[in-house]
Design goal:
The protein is α/β, with parallel strands linked by helices. It is built from 10 helices and 13 strands. Helix 1 packs antiparallel against helix 2 and helix 8 runs parallel beside helix 9. The chain binds 5-S-methyl-1-O-phosphono-5-thio-D-ribulose (MRU). 5-S-methyl-1-O-phosphono-5-thio-D-ribulose binds next to helix 2. It catalyses: 5-(methylsulfanyl)-alpha-D-ribose 1-phosphate = 5-(methylsulfanyl)-D-ribulose 1-phosphate.
């Protein structure tokens, strides 16, 4: 069975609560933008593409139930407002902001068309949100296949299997399915070209230990979980052929924001002469920003560092 972070059918949206993984596979129904926003903030669903898809589909569910209006202007204002709330939920990942721009634009365009009704505006927004789900899955398969072939050509021109190190979770759980960086690893495995995977635990929220390790075991892909602080040693001594990570946002000059720890992985990879790749769909690209310095970096609650499963592990009164 395919791992699904998002289950959607017209009028119904469910997410796999990733805070409960790997112990429990529990789906939670989201019937409104407000519920989706809370789930995204709490990281029950996370990963740049999945955040955007859940946000947009929660709006689709709300609109199908007749939310917004009465009147075209008030419906368009409602759509814009709901999208603003969703964009603010996790600001670094740009996918939601890009999707919001597109949805707000089609809502406004349709409302201005002669003969438009509330129903046609709702249908246009819902239709576009549903297309995004299909497109993300297609994009991920392409990223996986193209990325795997590129990586084999570049890192192993004489043939032979490769070993890949990855960070955070960029798999089926972070997307509509298959994944981006983890999609490349999945494709290498499907091609019979993957020797081994190293996945980092990804402190403080352990997306690597809880989610990537879960996906790799689930798919029977050969893999070892390492602490974040073992990455340099793994690169020095364990034959890592390439590092492949995902992206929350790629800006015009190529600067990339991703899970904390990605920067040091890039430096360590450079030190060891190991190719470092960012695997991301165009929905993660933000060409409006020139450099990474302009990216708003999300600040998370300090408990994510000081506590483990609700139990304080850090010294009291330490500055954070
Ligand atoms: C395909 S997911 C791309 C990125 O969003 C991913 O690399 C990442 O850093 C996820 O972070 P998260 O904080 O778990 O949302």
């Amino acid at each position: 069975m395919r791992l699904e972070a998002i289950r959607y059918s017209p009028g119904s949206l469910q997410i796999l609560d990733q805070l409960q993984l790997p112990e429990h596979c529990r789906y939670e129904a989201l019937g409104s933008v407000q519920q989706a926003r809370e789930a995204i903030r709490a990281m029950k669903v996370r990963g740049a593409p999945a955040i955007a898809l859940v946000g947009c589909l929660s709006l689709a569910v709300e609109l199908r139930a007749g939310a917004g209006g009465p009147g075209l202007a008030s419906l368009v204002a409602f759509v814009q407002n709901q999208l603003r709330l969703l964009v603010a939920a996790r600001p670094t990942a740009v996918n939601m902001a890009r999707a919001a721009r597109d949805l707000a634009r089609v809502a406004a365009q349709e409302a201005e068309r002669e003969g438009a009704t509330e129903e046609t505006v709702r249908e246009r927004v819902i239709g576009l949100a549903e297309d995004m789900l299909e497109k993300d899955l297609r994009d991920n398969r392409n990223i996986g296949d193209l990325g795997a072939r590129h990586l084999l050509e570049q890192t192993n021109p004489r043939g032979g299997k490769v070993t890949v190190l990855t960070h955070c979770n960029t798999g089926a759980l972070a997307t509509a399915g298959y994944g981006t960086a983890l999609g490349v690893i999945r494709s290498l495995h499907e091609m019979g070209q993957l020797e081994h995977t190293f996945c980092t635990e990804t402190r403080p929220y352990n997306q690597g230990a809880r989610l990537t390790a879960f996906e790799l075991v689930y798919e029977q892909i050969p893999a070892t979980l390492i602490t974040d602080s073992m990455a340099a040693a793994a690169m020095a001594h364990r034959g890592v052929s390439a590092v492949v990570v995902g992206a929350d946002r790629v800006v015009a000059n190529g600067d990339t924001a991703n899970k904390i720890g990605t920067y040091q992985l890039a430096i360590v990879a450079k030190h060891h002469g190991i190719p470092f790749y960012v695997a991301a769909p165009s929905s993660s690209c933000d060409l409006q920003l020139e450099t990474g310095r302009e990216i708003v970096i999300e600040e998370r609650p300090s408990q994510e560092l000081t506590d483990l499963n609700g139990v304080r592990i850090a010294a009291q009164a330490i500055l954070l």
